[in-house]
Amino acid sequence: MTPHPKIDAIVETYLSLADAEAPGLVEGLYLEGSAALGDYRPGTSDVDFVAVTAEPPRAEVLERIHTKLGAHPFDGVYLTWDDLGHNPAELGERPQAHTGRLNRRGGVNPVTWHTLARHGLTCRGPKPGELEIWNDPGALAAWTDTNLDRYWRRLVGRASHLASPWGLTCLGGYGAVWVVTGVSRLHYTLATGDITSKTGAARHALEVFPEHWHRVVNEALRLREDDTALPTLASAVSGLSDHFGTPRRSLYGSPFERRRDVLNFADQAITAAHKLYRSRGD
After folding, report:
1. Contact present, 184 and 236 (Cβ < 8 Å)
2. How many Å apart are CA 190 and CA 269, to the nearest integer?
């Protein structure tokens, strides 16, 4: 059983398609992400998976499976049992699925291994505790520190220009949740050595960052719990009523004011997370 009937339906559909297309291919299926971390939101969350096979699967078979699955929010990576025991940095590319499409040359990172080892939810196969899953806290911390700049600092830089895709995205609720909780998740990992959900990251930020930032963090937490913030124009337009409707639901008077705090908080959180990494004793 999974945390929500919607997840049950997606998993059942996927396994039925995979077993019909290639009987015996998927020997293990595990959920990570929000489903495994207790933060699944049926309106906005994807279902993140790790599928395990005995041998590297043929890409054309996986493409047929995910084409038939369609645009179900079922995103994940295909690994072998042997892969689980190795540092992902040594493995190279692995097939990844995203919204019905297969990327034959997807990247892998230690977050997947760490999440699977500590939080993975079993849908098929042995439980994660029964497996030898590679887990190196130092490698996780190093990857997290690098990702702060390689992804998040670059994103914040692009978003600082209003007339850009991310600049406009950060006017909406989706951008606020993605950025505020995203940088907070990495700060949490460097502070604790573990992985947390978007909601868990926001609660962590309320505990460790000065009160000056609590409004933007609480706004991200509100949007996450409302389960309506999607990366679509329709979602962004409907979200304007949170600022200007009666009663006003947003903690901000305008999306521009909120965007300013989102980006400023991200900058401060990235800097603070880097300091945590530099202070490590290993």
Report:
1. no
2. 12
Q: Which of 111, 117, 104, 46 is nearest to 78 (CA)?
A: 104
Q: What is the pLDDT of residues 174-226, one digit of tens each?
A: 999 999 999 999 999 999 999 999 999 999 999 999 999 999 999 999 999 99
CB 249 within 8 A of CB 242: yes
Nearest Cα neighbor of 52 from 73, 29, 68 is: 29
List the beta strands (DSSP E) in the chain: 28-32, 47-53, 74-80, 94-98, 101-106, 121-124
Q: What number of helices (H) and strands (E) belong to the chain?
A: 13, 6
Q: What pLDDT does 10 receive?
A: 95
Looking at the structure, tell me whether residues 124 and 213 fall in a common domain.
no
Provide the angle, in degrees to the nearest 10, between the axes of the packed helices 137-147 and 110-119.
Answer: 130
Q: Which of 187, 145, 151, 147 is nearest to 272 (CA)?
A: 187
The tens digit of pLDDT for each residue in 109-120 reads: 999 999 999 999
* Domain final position from 130, 150, 171: 130
Listed residues 102, 130, 158: the one ending a domain: 130
Both 152 and 251 in one domain: the answer is yes
Closest Cα to residue 49, out of 68, 70, 34, 67? 34
Q: Check whether residue 268 and residue 200 sit in a common domain.
A: yes
Tens digit of pLDDT for each residue in 229-272?
998 888 888 898 999 888 889 999 999 999 999 999 999 999 99
Query: Which two three-digit tokens encode residue 121?
Result: 């939810």
Residue 220, classed as helix, strand or coil, is helix
